[in-house]
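tool=predict chain=A
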Amino acid sequence: MKNNTISKVTMAAVMAAGLSVSTLPANAADKPGMEKCYGVVKAGKNDCGTAKHSCAGQAKKSGAETDWVYLPKGTCEKLAGGKLKKDES
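tool=predict ok
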């Protein structure tokens, strides 16, 4: 009985890991017509992780130059503060 419980827990963990990998956001190359735009994200509205956090929706402040959001190509550079490359400073 105890082994059966451990097996169920293990199987649930494996399935959860598989689901999390399959729902990772695609990169810009996988989103035709889209590009990453840095520096225009509102707090909590970023599309993916950075060196400071590992998940979408965790941007701490609006306009952070390390956080990005997908936008249609050509839109980013029209926005105040919008950059196509991350600020490395």
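The two ends are 56 Å apart (CA to CA). The helical segments are 2-22.
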